[in-house]
Amino acid sequence: MLTFLSSDAVEPTQSMQRFIPPIQKIFPKAVSEEQFKQLHQELWIDASWSTNYVALTISSCMIATFGLISNSTAVIIGAMIVAPLMLPLRGLAFGALEGDLKLFRKGLGAIAGATVMALVLSWLTGHIVRIPEYGSEVLSRTQPNLVDLGIAVTAGGIGGFAKIRERISDALAGTAIAVALMPPLCVVGLALSQGIWSFSLGAFLLYLTNLLGITLACMVVFITAGYTKMNRALGWTMGLTALLFVPLGASFLQLVRQERLQATINNTLVRRTVTIGQPEVELLRTKVNWTAKPPIAYLTVQTDQEITPKQVRLVQEFISREMNQLFKLVFLVSEVKQVTAEGEIPTDVPAPPILDNP
Description:
Blueprint: H1 7-10, H2 14-26, H3 33-46, H4 51-69, H5 73-82, H6 86-98, H7 101-129, H8 136-139, H9 146-164, H10 170-193, H11 197-224, H12 232-243, H13 245-271, H14 273-276, E1 282-289, E2 296-303, H15 309-323, E3 328-335, E4 338-340, E5 343-345
Parallel strand pairs: 2-3
Antiparallel strand pairs: 1-2, 4-5
Helix pairs in contact: 3-6, 4-5, 4-7, 4-10, 5-10, 6-7, 6-11, 7-10, 9-10, 9-11, 10-11, 11-12, 13-15
């Protein structure tokens, strides 16, 4: 039927030609057989249980474990640079899409082996050290939410993209990926060594979230790049990832409520001094027991004035109105006193500045 159309109708106009190249870049292009074989061979090597892989796994695990124990972000970044778990994960994603059981089993075996190894090493280290309380680096990985899933998907996309692009170093993607895999796995081992089951379950949920998020993103990248096609493996991965929306969404909503409550409390104590009646009140820490009915907010404050039950009731009623939910407030008051060798100084007298020794 094209014979009935004029040449002007068949050929795109000059304005249309400007948009054709960008649109064509969006759709996947068929790759050559040589490119496919090269990618398959590289992924096969990456998924191998080799001496290098074992050494990287042990090094990354120990660095991350020591960084978590010392609560040092800089040390944990060292574990991020090693990033061994990303290597077989991309092979697992590609093998699932292609129906290549050998590559899939090879990647799955490498991931499972590294997971068990990291759990044992971190558990043993925590059992030997036996620190009484963990810091913020551990705590931040025990309550995953939807934000962590977004980070995992983004990191997985970077990892898959770096594998199919020649001029992007794997180290760039590996650095972003390791923070999503090895540290939470080490938190599971450390928490198990101390019998803190809630921490271990939360960290393991974060590990699964990142594992599925990265796998899903790698699959999408391989499909978009034209190396493979969509099949049931992508659907299964999307389904399993969707199941995580329930616990992650609940945690995210709790995080939003916590931040909103924190902001309301700060606004009440700092700006609405008439409500509390004490401009000298300083909020040090807030901890909320959401399982109680109604939720109980423990406010650790520092002041040199007395806080009365009436003032607490006024703040409690105000916060409950602002949050549209009933709350019970418990003030943990830390009294401030100024004491010198000559005796106690009245609180209304400002303390002199402390000078450094020359």
